[in-house]
Amino acid sequence: MKYSRLHAVPTVQRGLLLGFSMLLATAGSSAAEAASPSGTDAVFAYIGPGAGFAVAGSFLVLLGTFLMAFGIILIWPLKAVFKLATRRGRGKAKVKRVVVIGLDGFDPQLAERYADRMPNLARLRSQGCHYPLGTSIPSISPVAWSTFATGVDASRHNIYDFLTRDPCSYMPVLSSTDTSTVPRNINLGFAKVPFGQRAVYKVLQKSQPFWKLLGANQVWSSIIRVPITFPPQKFKNGTLLSGMCVPDLQGTQGSFSFYTNDESKLGAATGGQRFRVVVRDDAVESNLKGPPGPDKISMKSPFRVAMDRATGKAAITVGDETVHVGIGEYTPWMEVPFTGVKGIARLRIQRWDDEAVSIYVTPINIDPESPAMPISHPFVYSIYLAKMLGKYATLGLAEDTWALNERVIDEAAFLDQAYLIMDERKKQLWDVLEKTKKGFVTVVFDTTDRVSHMFYRYLEPDHPANEGKDTEEFKNVIPELYGNADKLIGEVMEKVGDDPDTVLMVISDHGFCSFQRGVNLNSWLRDEGYLVLKDGAETSGDWFEKVDWEKTRAFTLGLTGIFINRKGRERLGMVEKGPQMDALCAEIKGKLEALLDPKTGENAINEIFLTQEIHNGPYADMAPELLVGYHRGFRHSWDCAVGAVSKDVFTDNTKSWSGDHCIDPRLVPGVFWSNRSIQLDDPNLSDIAPSVLDLFGVEIPGYMKGRPLFGSNERSASPVPKTPAGSKTAS
């Protein structure tokens, strides 16, 4: 039996092969002594879930793997009987395989503009159909992909943003994941003996992904990098590689490292850390920062870069590994060893001359070949992929947008990184397509979203981020991105072939638009008297530093909504739920919908949605009371997103991150292509889950809000706010 045929072999052999891959992964692992660098602390782009790594000893891992494989052999007869019994309750499948390719952020208007670059998607449309795809409310990736996975709205899956606030402290927490450590004890019967700490990972997304329902009905699923799948939830009959919200080895959502002797490039950095280095004999020696050790001090891993001026190549050594690259070239993934755990990183020499040296290091990703925490289901699936296809990015937000925002890398370096990650994802897609001849396959590509965020300004010469800069060099990046996405779909269509029993869908979670002007709604709330600062202060730092909660009625953080400081929910709430809160929400809504940008005279906001009017699920009560539907070109400002109160309400967005989609969701629909026609002309992201279940003959749960696209459409559509008269709509 070949190891490369993981999904194609019977269950017993598959379990043994997975166990064997774990043996291979742990056999060669080693630890390195830590060293200490100097440098600044990181100021993170997103709030990380904390380090909290549970590092298992090799013996326990090997023993557990052996017992798991042995157990699979013992229970196989019972599983075979159970499989036959449960299949009787399932309806007749209409197809053998469903393939969904996710192109995060792929925009229907840009797709129309660059249609001449996309012959394969045109061919797919001729075989079936093409429509705009209604997105979630709010139109932000963690919300949208959660709706894709569960078939319900945000009030039922509990994800409204990347961040929410802790109502007890008003401090930010990740919406999707809770990571903590608890004491580990050995129970001796008469006493419990402390035995260090163990990490606890809790997924905060509610409802359940539809592939769990497929698995319960004996339908295999291969799930690759769907956002908000960390920590990986267990389900029957399938494999999953986690996507968005997988942390790096420091426990953050992505912290780059930058090493330089250029004083102008040192200082605090959002999304990473900068270190001063000294060049001696054309070589640099320093350390990579890792997770906290037992003493709660960050562990260190030494590295060395030695430049050969004659060849223009540098020898880069990390641990026991040395590679040779030129200036402006990425290393392959290099293992970064720490005591008891290791990660992987790519290094790139940005500059090396007599005046300055600059070295960029990606966030240290969890090593998929020796994961410090679960990043796949089953645990060994990430190891299998690494053994078969090579090491790959595991960080949830792998494309380093903040390194480009902070200008520690340039546009060329970002593009190289984004396409390296896209190539890794393609290999994983080809693997699951080959191994999953029956069942469900989905792979999400982030490149379309990340490149659109960082290069949208090159579509608009007058964008504030372009002031004083040449826009010619990169003006074709997004058109080429759409052409490259089309080539990917062409390859998928070739591999799928003309199989009438395979349904192929190409979707995106939302569209895209320009982000030119930032709006600090905390500053507006201050000006209107809804948010009050202590001691008469005019401004406040991040995370509501000077906010007087006993006088504040409304506030915002994240990118999507405004919270009311409610009695009985927030610790210092002052607004009663009921008529008092309803009147306050109506008042704020009316004022904000009339808010004009003093620079352009345009309305900044298309519509404010009252959550209680559009969502009635069990988790709406903890959501923002008002969801902000900006017009195209506007978004929460950067300081507003982190709970700061600035002097001005409106500011120009001058960062490289120049495109966005956190606006009125009706203005940024996603895309939908299929090789089959559908019976609706207004498909929505919430329709994908019930459609896949229906295609496999699995009963659609009554709680799902979507409709089956390919079969009977007797179910009513979930309510979507109507477009107000005079507002901008997507064509």
From TrEMBL:
Coiled coil: none annotated. Residues 711-731 are annotated as: Disordered. The chain crosses the membrane at residues 50-78. The keyword Zinc does not apply. Keywords: Membrane, Signal, Transmembrane, Transmembrane helix. It holds the Pfam family Phosphodiest. GO terms for molecular function: hydrolase activity. The keyword Membrane applies. Residues 1-31 form the signal peptide. It comes from the Bacteria. This is Type I phosphodiesterase / nucleotide pyrophosphatase. It comes from Saltatorellus ferox.
